[in-house]
Amino acid sequence: MDDLIQKYIDDRCSSEELVIVLEWLKTPEGQETLGRKMDELWARENEQRNAAPDASSENSMRVSWSVTNSTDHRKQKALGRNYMKWSMLAAAVALFVIAYGTLFYSGGSSVEDAVASNPSLIVKQNPPGVKSTFQLPDGSVVKLNAGSELRFTGEFQGVREVFLSGEAFFEVAEDAEMPFVVRVSDLSVTALGTSFNINAFGDRPDIGVSLSDGKVKVEHLDQTTDVSTSVMLEPGEKAVFQKYGTTLSKQTFDPEIDLAWKNKILVFTASDFSEIKTRIERWYGVQVVIDPKLKTDWKFTGRFHNTSLESVMESVVYSRGLAFNIDKDQVKIYKPMK
Predict the structure, then answer these.
(1) CA distances from 79 to 4, 16, 44, 205 (A)
(2) Over the stretch 136-193, which tens digit does the pLDDT of each residue have?
(3) Which residues, in sequence order, are CB contacts of 99 under 8 Å at separation 6+?
(4) In a 3-state reduction of DSSP, which class is residue 118?
(5) Residue 136, Cα to own-chain centre: how many angstroms?
(6) How many CB atoms lie within 10 A of CB 289?
(7) How far apart are CA 249 and CA 172, in angstroms?
(8) Burial label, 246 (beta-carbon count in 10 A; 0-12, 13-18, 19+)
(9) Residue 282: CA atoms inside 13 Å, Cβ hemisphere, count?
């Protein structure tokens, strides 16, 4: 994610990459990074200003300053631009929360335009730590993961169309006359009667569509070129859309991993700390904070069925010789005193 953030700072982000940056900044990890970066840049900019000589300096000092510190001057201007960039990101994220909780960017996409043009959509939204199961007007059943949102009309006409942000498992009621379409980012997933999972969390570099039974069509429409690509899935197959390269491919998947969440199973497979932190925060609705002096270049594998936060944390941190403390909705990880 650091490389993508730097591309934003350097004005090198494509529209798709900008969407990924803004989605990530809506996560707890993104919010924490946003605040830290703004604080760092503000402090560094102040240091640059304080280091400059005042107007009462002698002429010889002024000449020396102008020659030896031209690079520092450029750095200070760069810091200012960087701080402005992070400030703009903060404002953008706040605007999305106030408006629809849905991404809008210059030019938009068909998904965002459709949602914006229909304010009467019913919204089912789960905060971190909360999962839900509900029925759509056509009888289809949706299992919505924590930190996710689904929008749909109160009555389907012509096409059963829903809009997803996050992750959900769909058990689609059969209706040969009315296709069922899930729209997420620049993807559309079309089915008649089937069950499948879509993982489209903003912190992920890809979107995954995993098919349990039936048949679905996954289609990507490039908003820039107006060219579409698609794949047809059979049971046991998965479509993977890479957000960075905007490529769509097909592969097999392990239901014990991709579909585990709907059975209250939390799975880590060689997960790095960033993924562990994000998923624990989403699963339990907490904030995970680690001592910045500690190394996080390690991975963890584990499987937890309907397990308490305390038990999961014990497995994750004790194996690294670390300790943790849970205080209300915050989990602090630290190195215990010997």
Answers:
(1) 18, 26, 8, 28
(2) 999 999 999 999 999 999 889 889 999 999 999 999 999 988 999 999 988 999 997 8
(3) none
(4) coil
(5) 25
(6) 16
(7) 23
(8) middle
(9) 25
Residue 276 and residue 300: Cα distance in Å, rounded?
8
Q: Which of 120, 185, 126 is nearest to 150 (CA)?
A: 126
3-state secondary structure of 140: coil
Q: Which CATH architecture has domain 110-258?
A: Sandwich (2.60)
Helix segments in 52-203, DSSP class H: 59-68, 70-98, 110-116
Domain boundaries, the chain: 2-98, 110-258, 264-334
Distance set, CA 108 to CA 66, 228, 312 (Å) = 46, 17, 40
If one counts every other C-beta atom within 10 angstroms of the C-beta of residue 265, the result is 15
- The CATH number of domain 264-334 is 3.55.50.30: yes
Asked if residues 197 and 209 have their Cβ atoms less than 8 Å apart, the reply is yes
Do residues 26 and 97 touch, judged by C-beta distance below 8 A? yes
**pLDDT single digits (tens) 66-85:** 333 333 444 444 445 454 55
Global pTM exceeds 0.85: no
DSSP for 277-325 reads: HHHHHHHHT-EEEE-TTS----EEEEEEES--HHHHHHHHHHTTT-EEE
- Judge if 110-258 and 264-334 fold alike in CATH terms: no
Looking up tokens 């629809």 gives 100
Cα-Cα-Cα-Cα torsion 96, 22, 93, 40, nearest 10 degrees, comes to 180
